[in-house]
Structures are given as structure tokens and as C-alpha cells.
Amino acid sequence: MAENEYIRFDWAMVRMLRQKSNFTILEGLLTTLLGMEIKIKQVLESTDESITDRNNRVDLLAIDDSGDEVFIEVQNNTEYAYFERIIFGMSKRATELVCNGKGQGYENVRKVYSVNIVYFSLGKGTDIVYHGKAEFRGIHNGDLLELSPFQRQKFNVDEVSDLYPEYYILKVNDFNRVAKSSIEEWAYYLNTGDVPKGAKAPGMEEVKEQLKVDRMSKAERSAYYKHLDNIVILRDNIYTEREEGRLEGRAEGREEGREEERRQNARRMKDLGLPAETISTVTGLTLEEVAEL
């Protein structure tokens, strides 16, 4: 992996972005992604505070000034059940908010945003950012279920979906082209570890000022470069596994094709009335296989 001037986001999440002085970087990403100004009040301890060779994953939980929570996860490893884990994580957090509320009612559950930055091919799609939220529609009339005036006033929201978790997935692994929008500027940095020229997205200036590699100590740089090497090895392993799978699939396909061709030839010979022994000798099928045709 080429050496860049700036520190990769997944490494910064663990080492730097939990510090209050660096909140503006996270706020810039979240403001750009969610389309509204986000001010982080505090960052809570995550379930996984380190990046390891075996599990290249890091997450954190931030609370903004309005009390909403933002759960951010960076995942480098390919995980086929990642969609299910997103659901599990949000369900677990919602349960914790109720159980830790000392008997408070469900109306005290806070809004939670799930932001997932994935460095692998998740699902099938052509975009780099996907957004999901809960809506209820009538199965007969197709109308959207809305809040009552009392509920709007009580919960201070406009839509039912405003009460439920919202999900964002950033598929940044392949984005290294020219960045033409604020979210593309972030996607470029998240993938390459470099800031695109002329970047103006919220938080980009702070990245350039606070996340420079040359500001690290010698020991920090050594650990950081080891992490970059691990990322390269991880991506190479994923690529190798895919290529081996394709090659194995092609080989199996060719063998299946040859087998089917032998059977087709054997059927034609059988239709012509040739002896089973002759058919077996010519096609390589056993007498039992010829008899079953």
C-alpha cells in the first residue's frame, strides 16, 4: 500500500477520534452523511477498542447534542452475514437503552443511527452510500402510517421513521475516482487514506491538520505501517480466494461439460443400436452408466 500523507480513518477511529479535540472530524463525516449538522457531546467506549490482525474491525458510539446516538463501525473483513449483524447491534442497543433506563418507559428510547463503513463487497449494488429506515405502509391503500398530532408534539418528530433506527452503509472499497461531491470526498479519503485536491467537505480541513502521518511518534508510525501491511495482506487474501474460486468453478464447469458431452454421444450411439461394450469403450462410461441412459 502506497504511503499517504494522512492517517487512514479506521486507525484514527481507535487512536485519535475519541479525543474531544478531534470531534470535528467525526462531526464532519456525520454532518455530510446525515445531511444535518451533528455536534458530538461524548464518545462512549466501544465493544472493540483495537484493530487486530485477526479481526480488522473497530466501532464507537457517539452521542450528539440532542441526545441521539450514532453507532459507527468500520469493517475490513468480508462478512457474508453483515446485514444480520447490523440488525443485531441495533436491537441490542435499543434493549440496553430500555433496561438501563431504571424503569423508564419506551418513550425514553433515543434515536440511533447505524453508520457502517465497509471495505468489502456487501450485497449487490452500484452506489457507494445506502440509506435504510423504517416505514409502515398500508397493504391495501398504500398510504404511509403517520403520527398523531399528540405523538408529534410528545416526541418532537414529524414521521414514524424518525423514532426508529436509521442505517447507512458506505461501500468505499472501490472508490478512488475523482470526487465531485462532499460525500465522495469522504469516500475517497476513507478508501485511499488520502484527501482529494480542493476538498471542501465538512471535516476535511481538520483531517489535513490533525491526521498527518508525520505528526506520529516513531513507535506510532511503526504500529501504523504494520496495520497498513495487514490491510494489504487481507485484501490480497480476499482477491486470491475469489480468483481460486473462479478457477475451481471454471475447471468444474469444463469437467461437467465433458461429462455431459460423453453422455450425449453415448445416447446417440445407443439410438443407433451399437452394443453397450462398444459405447463404453468409445465414451469412457461404465456399462452401468450406459445402461442407465
What order do the helices and strands come in, and which of them pair?
Blueprint: H1 9-15, H2 23-34, E1 40-44, E2 57-64, E3 69-75, H3 82-99, E4 112-118, E5 129-132, H4 149-155, E6 166-171, H5 182-192, H6 204-210, H7 218-271, H8 276-283, H9 287-292
Parallel strand pairs: 3-4, 4-6
Antiparallel strand pairs: 1-2, 2-3, 5-6
Helix pairs in contact: 7-8
Distance N to C terminus: 56 Å
Overall shape: extended
Strand order of the largest sheet: 1-2-3-4-6-5
Average pLDDT level: 79
Spatial extent as radius of gyration:
27 Å
Instruction: Show unreliable segments.
Output: 47-56
User: What is the number of E strands?
Assistant: 6
Helix content: 40-55%
**SSE arrangement, N to C:** HHEEEHEEHEHHHHH
**How many separate helices?**
9
Strand content: 5-15%
Structural class, by secondary structure, is alpha/beta
The major beta sheet can be summarized as:
6 strands, mixed
Description:
With 293 residues, the protein is α/β, with parallel strands linked by helices. The protein is built from nine helices and six strands. A six-stranded mixed β-sheet has the order 1-2-3-4-6-5, sandwiched between helices. The longest helix is centred in the last third of the chain and has 54 residues, at 218-271. The radius of gyration is 27 Å and the shape is extended. The model is unreliable at 47-56 (pLDDT under 50).
